Amino acid sequence: MEEILISVVQRTLVAGTPLLLGTVGEIISERSGILNLGVEGVMAVGAVTAFIVTHHTGNPWLGLCAAIIAGMLISMVHAFASVSLQSNQVVSGLALTMLGLGVAGLLGKPYVGKPLAIKINAMPIPILSDIPWVGPVFFNQSPFFYMAVLLAIGTWFLLEHTLLGIRIRSTGENPKATETQGVNVSMVRYLSVITGGGFSAMAGAHLSISYSKSWIEGMTAGRGWIVIALTIFALWNPMRAVVGAFLFGGIFVLQYMLQPLGISPNFLAMLPYMATLLVLLVGGLRDSRRLNAPAMLAEPYRRGDR
Amino acid sequence: MIHFKVSDREQISAIGTILTLVLALAAGMAAIGLIFILCNVNPIFAFRKIFSGSFGSIYGFKETLTKAIPLILIGGGLAVVFKAKFWNIGAESQLLMGAIFGTWVGLHWGPVLPSPIIVPLMFFAGFIGGAFWGLIPAILKLRFSINEVISTLMLNYICAEFLTLLIVGPWKSKKKFGFPYTDDLPDSAILSLLPGSRIHTATLILAVISVVVLAIVIYKTRFGYEVRVIGENPDAAKYAGIDFSRTTILIMVISGGMAGLAGVGEVAGIHHYLSYPDSISSGYGFTAIIVAWLAKLNPIYVIFSGIFFAGILVGGDAIQISLGLPAATVDVFNGTLLIFLIMGDFFTKNKVRLLLKERA
User: Fold this and answer.
1) Do B88 and B255 contact (CB within 8 A), yes or no?
2) What tens digit of pLDDT does each residue of B30-55 get?
3) Which among B332, B296, B303 has a CA at the least distance from the CA of B14?
4) What gap in Å lies between CA A251 and CA A257, rounded to an integer?
5) pTM to 2 decimals?
6) Rounded CA gap, A66 and A201, in Å?
7) Between residues 76 and 105 of chain A, which touch chain B (CB distance below 8 Å)?
8) How far apart are CA B79 and CA B209, in angstroms?
9) What is the pLDDT of residue A306?
10) What's phi and psi for B353, nearest 5 deg?
11) Angle separating helix axes B148-168 and B91-109, nearest 10 degrees
12) Which of B106, B102, B86, B82 is nearest to B94 (CA)?
């Protein structure tokens, strides 16, 4: 029993890791006022890039770096459209998702079904991992898990307690006033979207070189969209994102646990998506006032506009 | 020093609009060519294959028209909701729900009712199915302020699993050698085809009539005016006493319902039974988003943009077979063209001048 419980919690954290990475990235972007619906596509690009580079170099860490760079590059498409061209961010984000999924499918075609010889394995932390219960659950995880949690805490600190964080947030709340303070609003938004893209790509890399060690089309399976919902659930706060992401990780694990009980696998596969709706439903009931979203979220800003 | 000066453009001529569209599409094609080169695909060969596959032969063009049917139906509905800035990304599953409802009616009453009764009944059921699935996100938004992009997407996944659940479980045919398909629709419930093609004429006519009616509704009626005001200036709509909830619900009934009609057309015209979600619809619900956008959200233009993107779908199939490319190739087309289309919008909305002297 004890072993099962430990394994369940451990797998929950693994399943929640890409969700956390993606959500923290989206929070940065949305806090600066840019809604990025391209997460799903950027994740796919990250996953395929990490896989291909790891496949050829035999070094998964190099694969991770390449994935982050690729994710940042492709996110620039959305940054350019939404910041420089003041396009509709919903449409631009959708376009990024389609482009990302398409490019990933095209690049990854020759690699479908080829397993990697090496992947990023669990990395037990000395001493801490020997603690009973807590050790195996929290300190014998993939490095992606440690990175996700540290990045979430770091992003929280950045947003709430640093000058740069104040600038990012005020860019999303009142870009005009921010600009009069001498802050380059466009630059802040560009950097936020691109950084967010890097996070999403890391999430994708986790799927292809750590969670599994293979690439198949559609392996992101809607996680990018769940991330968008989690961002709302987290009320744009990275610390709440930790809770939300691992809650959802639990639902992914539950899916596999309930299967032997004879429940239809198709029904179980609906669970994460139904849970997303439920979570937003509860959020909508709880906050009859506005959800505290960045005031200028998804509103294009042009210098000199009144 | 070279720099750009951007200012509002008050008005743009029709020729200007068309020119921007054509230039945006051309630039998009160039970008797609570049992506092909980066992915080790000969772009000239790929383009030639795509357009000769879809528009270059009678057979190809018939296929293109076949795939244009659902795109026109869905794109017309999306043009209306997008006008009100309600982002329905769930047409894919509204189509599936329509297919499920329509198939149920066809399987149950097809054997006892004659064709002229059962076919309209199936379309009606499909409309109801799609509208029902489209109403959920509308209500979620109105009552619980849930973002419709998220809810429609989640409903896509849920509906796809629900359809799979039906065909592997209760609806599974006993005559299909264990394949996860439903029984075949009875003959009376099957749409007749244009000879020598897979064009199901009833749905094609329905699609063209629907978008013409929608265009009249949008541009000539008070309701259509309200839809446009809500999208362009929600504050003004509030002060003008426009009922936001009622309008949102109605446009989602229209949009979901039209996707549902498309679903019935696909099952009754082409497949004749329900099978896996991605064989019932090859991403029509998503491609239709770009169809609506290319048509500048005008339901009439949806006919032409629908045929254009249907051509890309058919050509995409052709290069999948001949070049061994993955299904995602079509996503590359869709995504890139959409990006260039919204970039083109920037130039129709703004006057951009290139200045070659010092910044004042």
Assistant:
1) yes
2) 999 998 888 778 888 888 888 888 88
3) B296
4) 10
5) 0.88
6) 9
7) 77, 81, 85-88, 90-92, 94-105
8) 15
9) 45
10) -115, 140
11) 30
12) B102
Chain segment A191-238, per-residue pLDDT in tens: 999 999 999 999 999 999 988 888 988 888 889 988 988 888 888 999
In order of A122, B2, B4, B132, the CA distances from B356 in angstroms are 58, 5, 9, 57
Indicate the pLDDT class of residue B102, thresholds 50, 70 and 90: very high
Q: In this predicted complex, what is the ipTM?
A: 0.86
Nearest CB to B39 within list A37, A107, A280: A107
Fill in the amino acid letter for A141: Q
Burial of B174 (0-12, 13-18, 19+ CB in 10 A): exposed
Nearest residue on chain A to B137, alpha-carbon basis: A277
- Rounded to a whole number of angstroms, the distance from the CA of B100 to the nearest CA of chain A is 16
Mutation for testing the B interface, residue in A106, A109, A230, A280 having most B CBs under 10 Å: A106
Do the Cβ atoms of A102 and B334 come within 8 Å?
Answer: yes
Residues in A 240-299 with any Cβ partner in B closer than 8 A: 264, 266-267, 269-270, 273-274, 276-277, 280-281, 284-285, 291
Determine whether the interchain pair B342/A91 forms a contact, defined as Cβ–Cβ distance below 8 Å. yes
- Domains parsed from chain B with CATH numbers: 1-41+330-360 (no CATH), 67-324 (1.10.3470)
Hey, what are B283's tokens? 């991403």
A102 contacts in B (CB within 8 Å)?
328-336
Cβ of B334 within 8 Å of Cβ of A98? The answer is yes
Bridge partners of residue B268, in order along the sequence: none
Residue with tokens 């083109």: B344
**Residue for token digits 């003004």?**
B236
Alpha-carbon span B79 to A120, nearest angstrom: 46
Q: Which positions ≥6 away from A209 have C-beta within 8 Å?
A: A50, A51, A54, A60, A63, A64, A116, A119, A120
Q: Which residues have C-beta within 8 Å of that of residue B15, sequence separation ≥ 6?
A: none
**Contact list, B331 vs chain A (CB under 8 Å):** 98-99, 101-102, 105
Would you tell me how many other CB atoms lie within 10 Å of the CB of residue A59?
13
Angle A97-B146-B96 (CA atoms, 0-180°, nearest 5)?
Answer: 60
Residue of B nearest to A287 (CA): B144
Q: Which amino acid is at B49?
A: K
Q: What share of chain B is helix, strand, coil (3-state, %, to 5)?
A: 70, 5, 25
pLDDT at A302 over 60: yes
